[in-house]
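Instructor's aside before we start: the two examples that follow are unrelated to each other. I chose them only because their records fit on one page, so don't look for a connection. First example below.
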Amino acid sequence: MKGFKRRLTAVTAAFLLGITGITQLPAAALSENEHYYLGDISGNDLVDVQDIILLQKQLLGLPVQLEVDRVDLADIDRNDVIDVFDLGYLKKLVLGTARPEDFLPEDPEPPQESDYISPIVTDFGWGMPTYGNVRVLTIFAEFSDVKFDRSTMLSAEAVQESLFGEGNEADYPFDSLTNWYDRASYGALHVTGDVVYYTCKGKMSDYSDYDDNGYPDYEPFVKEVLQGLDDQIDYRDYDSDHNGMIDCLCISVPADDLIYEGNEYWWSCTSTWYGDYSFDLDGEYINSYITTDDSPTADKLKGLKSTLTHEMGHAMGLTDYYLYGVDSHWDSSDGFEGEAGYERMDDSVGDLCSFSKIALGWMREDEAIWYDSGKGSEQTFELESISEKGNCLILPIDGENGDYTTEYFIVEYVTPTNNNVQLKDYCWYHDSGVRIFHADAELITDRWNSVYFKYDPLCPYYTCDGERRLLRLVNEGDTYASFGGKYTFYQPGDVCKYGVKNFAGYDSGDKATLDTGYTVTVNRISNGKCSVTVTKK
């Protein structure tokens, strides 16, 4: 399996070059379509002495037969020149003192960060990368007394295909994590990964400890699992940005539905590593990790993929948008209320909203359109569906145009397509239209030099009874029949202006009372696009 440690065995012919060794490439990796490793010049699925001989002959000008698409594999240092430095590096690969790198010759160049709005989450200084090819390690860990059902559990290979392959079309939009994030990021983030199984030494109850604050302490459990797999896994393979941190780690246990039986210890969440900061494996440290309570069975995988799309948002730096401090996650005062309020980081329904995508850097500068009062008090804009293309309108309140860490309104057009197809099952009156968010994305640095959103639900500036939050939905409310569908998506002819809930700037007392002067009118929706007019007095 790709990501597993390479085996090293001796070969006698190597004395010709004064070295010994052969690096066996993992079988599962070789089965991937058009997937190679740098250094495997001969095409025998090995990085070995034969590759050294071929490269040495080529450098000496001796006759050598190579397939055209394998010549690039000789340029190991990727400087577009095949020279003695590549030969030296190849010898290190064969000896095992360096690792073969992935090479995907048919893949397009991954998007460059410079092509996109700089992601706000990079200011936090940690987290799973939001661009390019990222590999996720997913472990299903059982216990000595509580195990996965052998009669229904799938093989690691089958689960891996479901999570990171083409998956199951019947589960759409959760066909696979790979496909879900490809759609959510408009191709900016390509998630792949590996799946392994592990059996813990102790009973489930042996790992159910709490920290001094009364929260579950999963770290001893996570440490045992990772150390137990250390001989099998090379953890460096899960650090795509080479920052010394594992990009994304998910561990699931056989605790299906235990929360409904009164056992709330094992539940899906993303935790920050805060105990043993010196703990590392293969030189890789842990910043955060995801725990889930789903078994690797066919009937649970759709739910697991849905959960992980939310939790991986946390791994990249997004926060929960629902209201902390209430008795229940489903409390009526929780999160974005109403039909227009379904969002992945709130109630885990639908796609990520435009603010989430901007925070992750998945929109280009020309896709996030800023209202510029210098161009006239009345302006008309055409919006495309956020589930299909990066596109939104930003109305600045307190800050300069182009500064995404200030206070502003975000206007976006939503359709029940791609990752938002779920809206068809959740909305009573309208499953598409225009919605507006009120954002206050100011950043703050604490005394430990950690950066985060000032009005994040976990920030000291946030209070559960206060109006000022990182993100609020304009015109939010119930959608029950008695309200006649009042709180839903804006439709053609609808107008949003001062007096609508949350459509006002924050005053010095953190209340939304200030008239910003904006009025937003929805003109028409046709041919997959929506026209809105903004006026400012």
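Example two begins here.
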Amino acid sequence: MSSFGASMSPGARRAMLTVFAMTATIMQALDTTIANVALPYMQGSLSAAQDQISWVLTSYIVAAAVMTAPVGWLSDRFGRKKLFIVCVAGFTVASLLCALSQNIEQIVLFRLMQGMCGAALVPLSQAVMLDAYPIEQRGQAMGIWGVGVMLGPIMGPTLGGFLTENYSWHWVFLVNLPVGILTVVGLLAFMDETRQQSHLRFDWFGFLALGVGIGAMQLMLDRGEQLGWFDSPEIVAELIIAIVGFYYFFAHSFTTPEPFLRFVIFRDRNFLIGCFFMMIMGLMLFSSMALAAPFMQNVLGYPIMTTGWLLASRGVGTLVGMAMIGRLLRMVEARYLILVGLTLTAITMYQMTGFTDDTSGREIVICGLVQGLGMGFVFIPLSTVAFLSLPSHLRTDGTGMLTLVRNVASSAGISVVIANLTSKTTVFYSQLAEHISPFNDALQAPDVTRWLDLATDQGRALADQMLTIQASIMAYANDFMLLTAICVLSIPFVIAIGSTASLRGKKVAVEVME
């Protein structure tokens, strides 16, 4: 701790630490989506093929997923402050290198580096926030922390589109530089170091087995839809490699005395149920975003900036929910708040099954606000419940595992809904096309043939366009119904959540930070 940080009051130091933990969270969460809209611009600038440019996203996801698991061990071995600062600095440097890339090989390499460093930012920031606040204030602390996690994916497409359209795709990465530098300085000044456990030895076999399993699974999920899933030898090979990797990881971890991922955290019922609902929320948040953005652009015809602003309505709803939840946790059991949040999420997902090409922007905004409110009601009580009874020495392992569960569920969910969207669009198009024939009396009516004459090229092109739009709308509705069913089926598991009575009716205590 620097002399400047040590001279401040405990409350002021905690507030400043919160600010810089939040900037790290927002920076990492933002980068999960900010590059998406810039991909077409990168492809032309870097002279990359369509399948090559997708590795700009895939490399980041794979590296982040693989490196999330050992965060707890690294924090214990080298100290949380040292690891946090190294990761933020590495993420910032990698962002600069991404912006300076001259070809596809360079940017994929630097995105791998960015993902490796960024993997620790969210779990470390959450662990810092949990340790900085007493138990009765953790609801509010998780509300503040959750703003960064939830707003990043919402702001990413809008900010990425703005920077790319008005400047260049390089600024998608350069925007991280001032934030990263400020965060490093802030952590140096205000964060305390944890005790380093130098006796710990790294479980290389377990790490490599898990890394191979996660990496192969991520590649399979990311490339499956493009290659035709299990019709492709590559996808089959990646599935086999993933199964073998996970088998050896679990077999090794349960038989070695010091695995780098401690399964003792799953003996805590609250943490286990927290992982389950974190998986559901990760799937709901990112899968619905992956569907909503192309629906607005391809079906409703909105430009990228308008789409970003409409998607931001869900972020506003989430902010409102998080602003309310800190105080509500002191008066209401967390499980009841989660129940309300899941119910609102399920209702709005079902409402989205009725979206068509005539859906107004006003209806989308209202649905997004309510859906964001529901997610805010789930996310913060869930984070509080998961760590309610988990020992402090397992907290970093827990935050890393929650992040890993959310990432894997998000990736799997996106792959499933996009693959389902593609296949169902083809199926629905074929079903609708069966009714387009000269033998359909409705198509022979004078009022129809006046503008849809199948005997002309223009009429057939118009019919094809109409069928494509209608098939897409039906496919999107099918996906939103799938998400609705998953959300509804998860609701009964709320009864497994333990009581949070210890958070209610307590006066706020000031914790002196060492």
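The chain has a mean pLDDT of 80.
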